[in-house]
DNA sequence: CCAGTTACAGTAACCGGTTACATTATTTCA
DNA sequence: TGAAATAATGTAACCGGTTACTGTAACTGG
């Protein structure tokens, strides 16, 4: 060996993490046995089990998630795909989902996916989750179809599946209750110039609420006036801006009520109305949707629709876990009931 | 070969997913080259790159996350550990965090960890994340120390590190502003029997707000009265129940103001007061903390403290990513400024 | 008493990437 | 112009688990 010869050191990666082989060695068993103990999927003798338990706590062994995932081809992760989370609506939804996910000892990863950012695959999908909860328009129809073809477990939330794709869907009753809400404004409070603040375009809740709104107008012989329709996105700041702008520039257009689309937007609407000196509900009725936690405490208390959002989250998550067991829910779309909540902002005195 | 010989079929796992080797083969290169192309960490000739791009889209290739994680020893996931998420407070926090995480093209996994559930390792940790954002008392001091010893990247949110552990921490100014808030009630509105609705015990914000409260009383020569302290948890339903109970059973104890601890609790407080016929702010002043989205719209509009919660989330996340690059923030604890927001519920007329 | 089960455990291939090391062709530059 | 540096790629060992396949001993029933 020539002088100056340099040993090629095996610079072992300083992965300090304890591995299953170390556990196996220390306990005097094979790695397979350790694995079986961890997963409880094969009988292990009592004393080996006890020994492993000791060794594992002593070594502070925690199985490496990625290694398990790679070997077992399952991630024990469910993904929640949203388009935005600028809305208090997500608190109850997330609560429902998280509770179920935790119960099943899965992890929950949250991602927002702007429909604009194409050409980039969504951050979560089959490569890093076992299934997806897809909120509203969190994913395009095409992507949905593509995942469906690959038989990837998914449940839609507040959105029904496109075409005839068999994807379970959990949402709430929008149209009938919106009809009743608007009907209430007309019949009880004599409102005739009811403004509609839309939600995001192409959003289903938004669509059905608008449909119910129109149906109520028609049922009462009130002509639909395009000028009374504003475009919002279920977001309080947008709502404020849009209405503020409207009032400032379209003074000649009168209105005596606002259907805000959802309660978050209602906050913005109330603020704009207040700042412009409209008295609610004397001059203008305001009604929302969702009955969020704060809605009963607004000025005035908000007439709205109670939607079981936490339950939506819970059921959607449960259905996803059922899909993991190849159990398809009875009904393709689970439509949860909604309920009229009459408070002060429509003009009622309760 | 004897008759009846049975071939041991290589029942290939029907893992339909496209692998890097398929891409490599189809593009006529080695897997190493594909890997290099994906990670852009070594020069690739133009035409090979083009070819790979085509093949990858054609095959709809998406790298298997677990395999990458296992091989590279990094997960590209940050974990957010909460104790609960029953609070609208999390919406802005989550927003701030998510924005940063997405910018870095990482994934965000959310877990709630009940401090009670010991003997079970937290659902997220070094085995499945590159770093943790730990909210409040989402993890015990011991666990914190243990992770710190292993040099695991963490940033604390709304909590300062125990002992002398060098863990970056991002939170808001609580004590001084609470002092000012209570001082306002006393000096401006002549309140003397100010009730304190505590947050969760051992929660730092709660502690400092209480400290500020006591300091203000003392500075004004008002004796601290233990009877005026109620235990809440920053949650509207608890707040409602606790105050409701108090009013029902302790009629003889008078009070003329309530410091609700946070705005979410303020909702419950307002409801309870309203139901029992107290007029706010004429008879009782109510003040909160956080200035959540709805606070300006409560009945009456809530006097509170504006806390830059979204910024807290953003900065905490940024600091975590800095830690990934071995950059420790200048200050151990980043204390974000808070601001008094005077509205109607304290008695002011604005 | 023996064939057929069952309980328990070990060996080693495999999951789908990353990367150290080796190799060849092409530049760069003294 | 020849040595050294650089560019572009390939080979194969690994990452840390899971599990198919085997093997042995104890048990069971006829």
Characterize the structure shown.
Two copies of one chain form a homodimer. Chain A is of the alpha/beta class. Chain A folds into three domains: 3-72, 434 Repressor (Amino-terminal Domain); 77-171 and 309-334, Response regulator (Rossmann fold, 3-Layer(aba) Sandwich); 175-308 and 340-346, Response regulator (Rossmann fold, 3-Layer(aba) Sandwich). Chain A has helices at 20-27, 31-39, 46-59, 65-72, 90-103, 141-149, 175-189, 204-219, 236-249, 263-275, 309-324, and strands spanning 77-82, 107-112, 131-135, 154-157, 169-172, 194-198, 229-231, 257-259, 285-287, 304-306, 333-336, 339-341. In chain A, the strands form three sheets. In chain A, strands 2-1-3-4-5-11 form a six-stranded parallel β-sheet, covered by helices on one side. Chain A has a four-stranded parallel β-sheet with strand order 7-6-8-9, sandwiched between helices. Chain A is elongated, with a radius of gyration of 27 Å. Chain A starts with 19 loop residues before the first helix and ends in a 9-residue tail after the last strand. At the A-B interface, helix 4, helix 5, strand 2 and helix 10 of A face helix 4, helix 5, strand 2 and helix 10 of B. Chain A binds a DNA duplex (30 and 30 nucleotides) through helix 2 and helix 4.
């Amino acid at each position: 060996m020539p002088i100056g010869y340099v040993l090629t050191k095996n610079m072992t990666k300083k992965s300090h993490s304890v591995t299953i082989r170390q556990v196996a060695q220390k306990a005097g068993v094979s790695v397979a046995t350790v694995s079986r103990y961890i997963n409880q999927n094969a009988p292990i003798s009592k004393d080996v089990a006890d020994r492993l338990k000791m060794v594992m706590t002593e070594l502070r062994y925690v199985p490496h998630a990625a290694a398990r995932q790679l070997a077992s081809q399952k991630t024990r992760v469910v993904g929640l795909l949203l388009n935005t989370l600028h809305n208090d609506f997500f608190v109850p939804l997330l609560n429902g989902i998280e509770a179920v996910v935790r119960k099943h000892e899965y992890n929950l990863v949250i991602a927002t996916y702007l429909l604009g950012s194409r050409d980039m695959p969504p951050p979560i999908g089959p490569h890093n989750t076992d299934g997806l909860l897809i909120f509203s328009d969190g994913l395009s129809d095409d992507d949905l179809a593509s995942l469906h073809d690959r038989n990837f477990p998914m449940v839609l939330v507040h959105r029904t599946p496109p075409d005839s794709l068999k994807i379970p869907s959990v949402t709430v009753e929008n149209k009938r209750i919106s009809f009743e809400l608007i009907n209430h404004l007309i019949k009880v409070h004599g409102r005739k110039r009811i403004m509609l603040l839309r939600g995001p375009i192409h959003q289903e809740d938004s669509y059905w609420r608008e449909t119910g709104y129109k149906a109520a107008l028609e049922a009462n012989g009130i002509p639909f006036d395009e000028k009374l329709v504003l475009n919002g996105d279920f977001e309080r700041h947008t709502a404020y801006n849009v209405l503020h702008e409207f009032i400032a520039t379209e003074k000649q257009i009168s209105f005596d009520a606002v259907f805000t689309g959802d309660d978050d937007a209602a906050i913005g609407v109330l603020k704009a109305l207040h700042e412009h000196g409209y008295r609610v509900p004397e001059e203008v009725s305001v009604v929302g949707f969702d009955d969020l936690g704060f809605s009963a405490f607004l000025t005035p208390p908000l007439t709205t629709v109670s939607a079981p959002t936490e339950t939506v989250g819970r059921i959607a998550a449960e259905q996803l876990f059922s899909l993991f067991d190849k159990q398809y829910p009875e009904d393709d779309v689970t439509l949860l009931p909604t309920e009229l909540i009459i408070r002060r902002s429509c003009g009622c005195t309760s």
